[in-house]
Each structure stands twice: as C-alpha cells, then as structure tokens.
Design goal:
It is globular and about 70 Å long. It has a 5-stranded antiparallel sheet, with helices on both faces. It has helices at 2-20, 30-41, 60-68, 104-113, and strands at residues 47-53, 83-86, 91-95, 117-125, 128-133. The N and C termini lie far apart (60 Å). 36% of the residues lie in helices and 22% in strands. It has one domain (23-133): 2-Layer Sandwich (Alpha-Beta Plaits). By secondary structure, it is of the alpha+beta class.
Length: 138
C-alpha cells in the first residue's frame, strides 16, 4: 500500500526530468572561437586554451575538470580546479603553474579519457595567439 504513495511522485519525476536538463549550446564558428581564445589568453603565458569537440554544456566541465586537474602542470588554485569552461564557445582555458610547460600529450589524453575529442589548442606567444592542432601522437 505504501508503494502506491510513491508512484505519482516517481511518474512526475520521470515526465518532468527532460524539462530540467541543460540545453546544449549551439555550435560556434572557428572564427568566433579564435576571437574568444584571443580575448581569454591575451598576455597570459601561463594559460592554454583548448577546443574540445562535444563540449556543449556546463555539465561537460565535470568530467573534464576531474581528468585535467590530475595533470601536474595544472594550477588548481586558479579558476575552478585550474580549468575555466566557456561552453558557449566550446573552449577550455587551463591555468598552468608558473614555470610549468603545457603537457600537450597529457592534456590530449585527459580530454579523450573524459569522453571528448581534443581538436585544437591555443597559446599566447610573441604578442598573438597561436593555433595548433592536436596530433594523435601528442
């Protein structure tokens, strides 16, 4: 008899769950993403921007933060566990420890392990943002 009390609650939860789900951000053009990377990384030599295909909502950041924050070069004191997420531009900004070099291979593997496809990374060098593609070997 007690179970009958829970059935309406369970039904209401199941039918309204899609209404509470986060809506994914629309895909953005490479030009808009580059503009955002330039804005975030301007004069920031201890940060790296990363475009990860499949990054479309703020919930995506959970798995990415878990995997990326395990890297020794990530400065977990900045942003949230060292990672700033801009889902609207499908862009991650990773804070690096002072003096640390970006572990491109480790970053790529952490993103793959989180279930996303790392496509490009952005670095501030010589007064501008450089765009690099991740290779399978990096």
């Amino acid at each position: 008899m007690k179970i009958l009390v829970y059935i309406p609650f369970l039904a209401a939860t199941l039918f309204t769950a899609p209404l509470h789900a986060q809506r994914p951000e629309p895909l953005v053009s490479p030009e808009i993403r580059l503009e955002a990377a330039q804005s975030y990384l301007q004069n920031q030599t201890t940060q790296i921007g990363v475009y990860a295909k499949g990054l479309v909502c703020s919930s995506c950041g959970i798995g990415l933060r878990v995997h990326l924050s395990k890297l020794d070069s990530i400065d977990k004191k900045q942003f949230k566990k060292g990672i700033f997420l801009d889902a609207s531009k499908q862009l991650l900004i990773l804070a690096l420890k002072p003096g640390a070099q970006a572990d491109i291979g480790g970053i790529r593997q952490a993103i793959v392990d989180a279930g996303y496809d790392p496509s490009q990374y952005f670095l501030w060098k010589n007064g501008e943002v450089e765009v690099h593609s991740f290779s399978k070997e990096s």
